[in-house]
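Quick one, T. Sequence first:
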Amino acid sequence: MAGVWIFAENQEQSLELLNIGTDLAAQLETKLVSLLYYNHEMAQDHINHGADEVLLLPPLKGDQLLDAYIPTIISEAQKEEPDIFLLAGTIRGKEIAARIASGLETGLCSECIGLSLDQETGLVEMDRLVYGGAGVQKVVCSKRPQMATIPARTFEAVAEQGARQGQIRELLTPPQAPVKILERRPKDRKSQDIREARVVIGVGRGIEKQEDMVLAQQLAEVLGGEIGCTRPISEEMHWLSEDLCIGLSGISVKPELYIGVGISGQIQHVTGIRDAKVICAVNSDENAPIFEVADYGIVGNLYEVVPQLIKELKK
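Structure tokens:
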């Protein structure tokens, strides 16, 4: 039956995968299939955004995890034999993808940042960063489905194409998984996951005292953003938690706007912000490496520049 399949945990990620999925399906002259939690209204929305078919996953019982879907997805993929299967590269998505790939005895490109179809072989060349972002590795999977996990915001969300006709099919109820939820405890988090933030304010050693972090916080608030940091701020000074550390040994962010405040711009940190759409830097050292990657730079004392920025942005 073939086809290009996509699966994501939320609507925004689904629309991003539908974007690249539409392109690949058109080149392969095949159908685009979206796997979706049980929601008929959302299924039609996916069709209006380019899907030719939506496979509705049945509701889970209260004590079941998403991995309960894995046997159902594997079984359906074995019958339909998709050419390509793309999943959102969340923590949970990557785990599910690896287990599906194992069940289908195929390969998986994790953290894929680019896909292109080789017209001669019909195989997809998948790009992923290696060596801390210093290089790009091209991966080709010779078995089907060719699978990849795609980080959030790698592709733009696809625009709605208007009312379209498509098939909606309900899948069988998954078997009872051996793992179930015993208890839910919300994680104590003072801010949202900065990997999802549209604006990120990065702070570095230029901040002299912990109480001065309020400057970065005020700037983040006026821009509706979140705060991240370099490794010294989280690991050495313990001013922020380690899950806010951006860079080679931390996380990568892809905001619309990144503002580095008092950050020199060593490669270990820059690796984590390279996919930001706009990078702005504030540093008193005009020769700071951060200015080499910044789209906009302000040479000046952050204790003078940041309050002025906040004042102007509030107008």
